[in-house]
Amino acid sequence: MGRISIRLSALWLNAFAFGLLIFTPSLADTVDTKHRFLIDGKRLYFNSYIASPDSRKTSIEMRDADTLRRILRLNPSIDNLIITSKGGSLRAAEEIMSTVFEFGLDTTANGPCESACAIIFLAGKKRQVIGETQLGFHRPTIDGDAELKYLEKYKSITLPNYIERVYEIGQRDVLKMVKLLSQQEISLEFLMEAYASPELWYPKREELKEANIIQN
Fold first, then answer.
1. pLDDT tens digits for the chain (216 residues)?
2. What does the alpha-carbon distance between residue 2 and residue 5 come to, in Å, rounded to a whole number?
3. Residues 164-182, buried b or exposed e (16+ Cβ, 10 A)?
4. Could you give all domains of the chain from N- to C-terminal order, each with its CATH number?
5. Overall pTM surpassing 0.70 (yes/no)
């Protein structure tokens, strides 16, 4: 993949505050390999494969949700979130979904879009995928590190109580996602399949169209 050329502009001044750049590629250009957030007119590119300048993580995290909201408030003309990611925090994905709904954004998957990325994609008013992009879905998983911290803090918890807690978290997450996505006119059968899969499931383009996941 060739790198997208970047042209200097006075408009960069606001962008640097968020660790992003403003550039002018066409929507069909290859994924940028240098910047986590980039603005192109009415389009905002978010590529979590680019390490966060603060945490150095290459997955979706809560600070991305905060950054996205600030960018949209400063740039109200943005109407399309173009996302590339292997996934990340479900909580962050929920926050980003809410922001996508609030600002009425379209979503575009450009390159790999898996797990939390695919969930965010579903929140778009209009949804499209670029080229050979695949969407990868799976059922929610428990954050191992967070659970270890929980067990260290509450060492007296019994196994039955812990199992009940994990079950309630999983049930809450699925119900919350179904509620958020109910307004999208997405096939319920598709959502059930997506949330039943323990491994990444990559539906075919025809399946995505039939379930009203994409409009292109």
1. 433 333 323 333 333 334 444 433 444 444 445 689 999 999 999 999 998 777 678 889 999 999 999 999 999 999 999 999 999 988 899 899 999 999 999 999 999 999 999 999 999 999 999 998 999 998 766 666 666 776 777 778 887 777 777 777 767 777 777 776 777 888 878 887 887 777 899 999 999 999 889 987
2. 9
3. eeeeeeeeebbeebeebbe
4. 12-210 (3.90.226)
5. yes
